[in-house]
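User: Okay, second chain of the day. Same drill as before: sequence in, structure tokens out.
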Amino acid sequence: MKKAEREEFKAFTDDLLSQGKEYIDIQKELIQLEATERAARYTGRILAGSVLSLLAYLVLMFASFGLSFYLGSMYNSLWIGFAWVTGGYAILLLILFIFRKYLLRIPFINYVIRTLIHP
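Assistant: Same drill. Structure tokens below.
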């Protein structure tokens, strides 16, 4: 190999290495940005879900009090109204406990998988 060819080859390999390093740096930055975006998206979902859960809890609590007082006035006994509402929640809890795999666990697992695969 002639000296000119060696220098040309060295310049080519240096340029190739430089471009490779630049490509790796850009890919690293892209991965960091994508990870940040996913983290922000999941944080937003968690925050929105928390706020909606709190509001749903408050609505359910006040509706339960209202139904309990209404039933209590119908039976002329507040404790009977509260007992009916409590019994209704106990039955709902029992149904959820019995069918927890199909009503809670599997849908939750599917939701997490869908969220992670297709954000």
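The chain has three helices and no strands.

User: Thanks, on to the next one.
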